[in-house]
Amino acid sequence: MNHFLTMQEPDRAELLHLIQTGIAVKNHPERYANACERKGILMLFQKTSTRTSLSFQSGIGQMGGYAVPMDWNASNFSISPIRYEARYASRNCDFIVARLKKHADLQELAAYSSVPVINGCCDRYHPCQALADLMTIYEVSGTFEGVTVTYVGIQNNVANSLIAGCLTLGIRLILVTPIINEASWDGALMDRAFSSGHVTRMESLPDAAAQSDYVYTDTWVDMEHFHHADYEAIKDFRMGTMLPYQLNKGTLNGHTPYIMHDMPIHPGFEIEEELIESASSIIYQQAENRMHAQKALLMHLLQR
């Protein structure tokens, strides 16, 4: 695994190692205080961020390294072919964490970079999020055996990487996804998912919740479009279609699975506010684990 772009790169042994290392780092951070000494991340961002930016910058700083934030639109990446800028930029750092709008641009960046490229989110995948999600499930359950997860929401980049991770680990995953984000669709991944026996699709959220240890939801509107006036028609359609699938006590129908959300949260839309702060919510644990899982990822990529 030279790059981490989709969550389909690591095999089962590598993925388990990353998750277990993430937990070890979380429990004993002092043991890894020099693990990335004098190593640097270029944080190349075309999209806004809270968790990806803070977790990577904090994580490598806690391991003795440093991060250089760079706004794509304020750099020459926005005016020159990616292949030229990538060849230069990768001579000045040890990792590139790229949060880009298009997966094709991320692939080109990785193809011409001489250092590992980590996908910090694109239109098709969000593997760092899925890595933290899986670490959280393992941390809570102590195993992946017999675990069932329901993902409810738009089938998007987050769902794709979660699907890939569940396939690798053999986790049962139920998709309650009335809308598919066309830009995120990965036909080959979905063919593999549905033929595996591990991934199924259901229409009823209450029925899925009844079978699930974890129920995971996500925003219905892509963050880069949330305040755009020309996106209002799509936003209204998604809100109207998805409201019956809001994660709330009614749709859980008396069941109490662990509640997951990758944030940012829009209370009253994809989830009711009461569930966010409920005893079954592991949302903040899941968000915190972004940093710990990514520390494990950085150390793993340094050894390649």
From TrEMBL:
Origin: domain of life: Bacteria
All residue ranges annotated as the Aspartate/ornithine carbamoyltransferase Asp/Orn-binding domain in the record: 145-300
Span of domain Aspartate/ornithine carbamoyltransferase carbamoyl-P binding: 3-139
E.C. number(s) listed in UniProt: 2.1.3.3
UniProt keyword Heme present: no
Keyword annotations: Transferase
GO biological process, one term: L-arginine biosynthetic process via ornithine
SUPFAM superfamilies: Aspartate/ornithine carbamoyltransferase (SSF53671)
A single MF term (Gene Ontology): amino acid binding
InterPro entries: Asp/Orn_carbamoyltranf_P-bd, Asp/Orn_carbamoylTrfase, Asp/Orn_carbamoylTrfase_sf, Asp_carbamoyltransf_Asp/Orn-bd, Orn/put_carbamltrans
Protein family: Belongs to the aspartate/ornithine carbamoyltransferase superfamily.
Protein name: Ornithine carbamoyltransferase
Organism in which the protein naturally occurs: Paenibacillus sacheonensis
